[in-house]
Amino acid sequence: MEKTYNLIIVGAGMAGLCAAAEAAAQGAKVLVLEKEEEIGGSSLLSGRFMAFAETDLQKKEGIQDSTQLLVDDLLTVGQGKNEVSLIEAYGENQYETYQWLVQKGVQFHAVQAVSGHSVPRGHTITPSQAISTLYQYAVDTGNVTVELEASVKRLRKNSEGRISAVIFEKNGLEYIAKSDQGIILTSGGFSRSEELLEHFAPQLKGALRIGGKGNVGDGIKLAWEHGAWVRDLPYLQGTYGFHPTADGPRKNQAHVFYKGAIVINKQAKRFVNESISYKLIGTEALKQPEGITYQVWDQEIMKENVPGDALYDFEKLNELGLIDKANSLEELAELISVPKAQLVQTVDEYNQDILAGGDKEFGRTTLTHTFGKPKTICRAPFYAMRTTVAMLATYAGLAVNEGAQVLNPFHEPIPGLFAAGEIVGGFHGAGYMTGSSLGKAAIFGRIAAQTALKTEITL
């Protein structure tokens, strides 16, 4: 027997659960379909940051920030390729969404300076806590039904041309569920689809594949069938900072370069300005001989360790045996098999430039984006971590408007179809600001539900 809901949400990560919680709070009857055996998706693999401005955590630390500065940073990092209306919508809704998440029980622990931020605004969460909290809130309303291991196969229109039904499989059986106010796609990207990556990002063939196992682009295909347009595919990039073992059960990574480390190749030479987006660093890293690169730093930078942080807990990586440590640069060079004289020369030249006030070779003047001052690398012991690029998330996909309505090639909304989270393109543009992925998932997940529930329906 077919069942009808107010909203059907495809995918139970950050975007889907925020949409479900928002809709449930408005009294809507919601069906959430998740094809994996557990909720969370790629949100559980994230670096734990959400980008918000003017929060209580920032004020407690004396950090001066503003919504406008956040918006400006997003546009700058995106190199002006972002859809401005989406960035403005993020700005208009970011603070209220932060408060909404706190009210729902999501815990924010601290604020860090991370990629693309002019000031520290990377608000750290524990993804599993956030996901489970949003899920529990949604189901406790009594308005939300969640079906796991339920794979959506096709979307269907009604006689008026509106997307109004999904065909899904569960336990080997096929079902149809109908929606009278909208279907929201929050099913993630395609970081695990070799087919789509080969078509749209062949330059990333050498990157590790570590995204959520369900991220094969099926949601994008569902929308394509009904005329959806796509955005940002030319800007697909990998994420730099992962240890080569990250394609195993542990996704170990570190961004020591945002605390002052330099990045070198197997010839012991720098090849990039380490303060730029780790996406852009990743693009350059894949061009290096054999794709081999290292982060190199000293004891002073090691003191910037942040216990428990996904990107800055260097001591934990050291304990896991993923970092090489030596009392001299020559000894370090031997451990990581790079030319000794060249490593010493690279570090010496870098130190001289920093002391003189500028990096002559690559123009580095900050730690990350416009924040912080570079540091010399001169106090033993010295450290290095072999670092590679991974396809963690695709950050490109369906074109949407500021109301999270999916658009066709003529920029017209496809009736009844909405999208939020990683499946969406047009937001990030040519670069990526840390924390904006989970941030946009929460913000636009809620916007999608709000828009759908306000949409005038023809029955």
UniProtKB/TrEMBL annotation:
Q: Which InterPro entries match?
A: FAD-dep_OxRdtase_2_FAD-bd, FAD-oxidoreductase_2, FAD/NAD-bd_sf, Flavocytochrome_c, Succ_DH/fumarate_Rdtase_cat_sf
BP GO terms, sorted: steroid metabolic process
Coiled-coil stretches noted in the UniProt entry, renumbered to this chain: none
GO MF: FMN binding; steroid dehydrogenase activity, acting on the CH-CH group of donors
| FAD-dependent oxidoreductase 2 FAD-binding domain: residues covered | 7-438
Instruction: Provide the leader sequence positions.
Output: none
Q: Which UniProt keywords apply?
A: FAD, Flavoprotein, Oxidoreductase
- Cofactor(s) named in the record: FAD
| Family note | Belongs to the FAD-dependent oxidoreductase 2 family. FRD/SDH subfamily.
User: Know the name of this protein?
Assistant: Flavocytochrome c
- Organism equals Lysinibacillus composti
